[in-house]
Design a protein that fits this description.
- This protein is of the alpha/beta class and 361 residues long.
- 34% of the residues lie in helices and 25% in strands.
- The chain has helices spanning 13-22, 49-57, 96-107, 122-134, 208-221, 269-282, 286-313, 320-332, 339-347; strands at residues 6-9, 28-32, 44-48, 71-77, 84-95, 113-117, 138-141, 152-155, 160-168, 179-183, 186-193, 196-204, 238-241, 245-248, 253-254, 260-261.
- The strands form three sheets. It has an eight-stranded mixed beta sheet.
- Strand 1 (6-9), helix 1 and strand 2 form a beta-alpha-beta unit.
- The longest helix is centred in the last third of the chain and has 28 residues, at 286-313.
- 44% of the residues are buried.
- It binds flavin-adenine dinucleotide.
- Flavin-adenine dinucleotide binds at residues 9-15, 31-33, 45-47, 118, 125, 142-144, 146, 148, 162, 164, 200, 240, 242, 256-258, 264, 267-271, 273.
């Protein structure tokens, strides 16, 4: 029987990234959902340029999932109702399902990684996890917002929900730059790659029946989000939870959304999942496990701080739906300080792994 060094639950970007980094250190068991296959429909996500560099280091060719057009400007109706150009960090847009497929294709070629279906029953999975843990195997929860190994999950009461629409288009690159607009019940964004535009409507407690009227209103109030798109083909096609969620883990490490699902506004989820994968794969001892958990506390506080500022800056920020969510985010900032984390980070005691050689198979 293989003596696994790490067992990773979940095969999104966080789980695939952890398996990829961890394989350089020893055998990894990657547990995937039973109905595992390519994710449809495709979605466009914004990713900082630095995360693309990480993927290249991991041996992934970004041309498989991005046209690599760099955007440092976005058009935003955020602090005022009128859209203005804003400069920010450079991002590229990726086709999300294609990125996961490229990571998976790399992972399955690694002899150190065994891919197996996870037990469908959560209690069975947790019991199995406890037996691995007792044998000294490091457990990594990469199951996204499901956070299947968490001791506790905190979903903010004001958490927001996203409905995403995609449209094939022949429009050129001038239509692909990021666009963002605050609206009374939340915010909406638009991202694009060659031939595909995504518009996401992120709403406070959005019921299914409220979505279509909200789209219509958005089209009237913020036509710049819909430029070049066909109004006939504009039904939102998929819903996702998009607000801040955090989870506490006792006997396992959490990577990606399983530990901290960032608000979609931040466009940080993919970069953070890759970075946390590199840190989690390096963990060997109980002391490192504790430091990793403390690092996550810092991450949560940093995200809450920047999100709180961004929400306060939006023109509808004094409306009740916005106040409720911002209040919940603000409460995360009052957590007691965690001095050990600062010390650990300053001394560099939790170090991420360097990317494994791209040519390894
Ligand atoms: C609308 C929206 C827009 C976003 N836009 C951006 C963006 O522009 N840029 C960006 O960087 N981020 C964005 N994000 C965030 C980003 O999508 C997430 O942070 C990222 O997907 C997290 O990856 P993950 O691997 O942690 O989780 P997931 O992608 O959720 O993967 C978790 C995996 O675990 C599996 N799983 C669940 N339960 C089990 C189980 N019991 N056993 C085995 N497997 C299980 C799931 O099936 C899945 O494969 C956005 C999120 C939303 C909702």
């Amino acid at each position: 029987m293989t003596a696994y060094r790490q067992v990773v639950v979940g095969a999104g970007i966080a789980g695939l990234g952890t398996a990829l980094y961890g394989a350089a250190r020893g055998p990894v068991l990657l547990l995937v959902p039973r109905a595992f296959g390519p994710r449809v429909p495709e979605r466009i996500d914004a990713v900082p340029l630095a995360a693309i560099a990480t993927l290249i280091d991991l041996g992934i060719d970004p041309r498989n999932f991005s046209d690599l057009v760099r955007h440092s400007q976005r058009l935003a109706a955020w602090s005022s109702k009128e859209p203005v150009g804003i400069s920010g960090r450079e991002v590229v847009h990726v086709r999300r399902a294609a990125l996961e497929a490229a990571l998976l294709a790399r992972v399955v070629r690694l002899p150190a990684v065994t891919v197996a279906p996870a037990p469908a029953d959560r209690r069975e999975l947790r019991a199995l996890a406890a037996t691995w843990s007792a044998r000294g195997v490091t457990l990594v929860d990469a199951s996204g917002r499901a956070a299947v190994l968490a001791a506790r999950r905190d979903v903010l009461r004001g958490a927001w929900h996203a409905r995403v629409m995609q449209q094939r288009t022949s429009a050129g690159q001038e239509f692909s730059a990021p666009r963002l607009a605050a609206h009374e019940g939340g915010y909406a964004y638009r991202l694009g790659c060659a031939g595909l535009i995504t518009v996401g409507l992120v709403s406070f407690r959005c019921t299914a029946s409220a979505v279509v009227p909200c789209w219509r209103r958005l089209r009237r109030e913020h036509p710049f989000l819909f430029e070049g798109l066909d109004a006939q083909d504009e039904r939102p096609i998929r819903g996702y939870p998009a607000g801040l969620q955090s989870a506490q883990h006792a006997g396992s490490l959490a990577v990606g959304d399983a530990g901290l699902a960032r608000d979609a506004l931040a466009s940080q989820g993919i970069a953070a999942a890759l970075s946390e994968a590199a840190y989690a794969a390096a963990v060997e001892t109980a002391a490192e496990r504790r430091l990793y958990a403390l690092r996550m506390v810092e991450q949560r506080r940093a995200h809450a701080r920047s999100l709180h500022l961004a929400l306060a800056d939006a023109w509808p920020s004094s409306l009740p739906a916005w106040c409720e969510y911002r209040g919940e985010v603000g409460r995360l900032l009052t957590d007691s300080a965690e001095p050990p984390v600062r010390v650990a980070l300053r001394e560099g005691r939790v170090r991420p792994l360097a990317a494994p050689a791209a040519t390894g198979s």
